[in-house]
Specification:
By secondary structure, the chain is an alpha+beta fold. The chain has one domain. It has 4 helices and 8 strands, in the order ααββββββββαα. It has helices at residues 2-20, 37-45, 137-148, 160-163; strands at residues 49-50, 53-56, 63-66, 72-78, 89-92, 95-103, 106-111, 117-123. Strands 1-2-3-4-8-7-6-5 form an 8-stranded antiparallel sheet. The termini are far apart. Mean pLDDT is 83; it is low at 3-22.
């Protein structure tokens, strides 16, 4: 009986370490301005599902993730991008996004005209071993529009015809 009583306190730390290793928390780096109060409003407004994927817990302020593995990642507080003529800008549900497709099939979308800016990384291909395992970028951005829209828009993307 005394041996068992001594073993329990000794095994408790090992049990805690084992349980911590089972965490499904997504490890992400926080953006430079993740502590901006506007980011807190975005995070509170994030949906439970994006593009049909369930939300996951993240370990950094101003972040969100959906899917297992995480196919959609959001970071609030990134630097606002300057005007660009080389990267496409698209409007989805009233939010202007600059698309970086340099790592296709992974795309990075960054809000334009909102400070702090929000960055959304989307794995549109998913697991090549699983059929139909990618994520629609437009669907994900649409699902995130209401949350991102809490940051006021100060400028818009314009096309060449608008500038004329």
């Amino acid at each position: 009986m005394r041996t068992r009583a001594r073993l329990v306190p000794m095994l408790a730390p090992l049990l805690l370490l084992a349980l911590a290793g089972c965490s499904s928390t997504v490890a992400l780096p926080a953006a430079t301005d993740a502590t901006d109060p506007a980011c807190a409003r975005v995070i509170v407004a994030l949906p439970d599902t994006v593009a049909g994927l369930d939300a996951r817990e993240t370990n950094a302020q101003g972040t969100g993730a959906w899917g297992d593995p995480a196919f959609v990642i959001l970071r609030c507080g990134v630097a606002s991008p300057p005007p660009t003529s080389t990267s496409p800008c698209l409007a989805v549900d009233g939010i202007d996004w600059i698309r970086d497709d340099s790592k296709d099939p992974n795309f990075t979308f960054t809000t334009y005209g909102r400070t702090p800016a929000v960055e959304v990384l989307i794995d549109s291909d998913g697991d090549p071993e699983v059929e139909n395992d990618g994520v629609s970028g437009l669907e994900a951005l649409s699902d995130l529009s209401a949350a991102v829209g809490v940051i006021p828009q100060t400028s818009k993307c314009i096309s060449i015809s608008d500038a004329g």
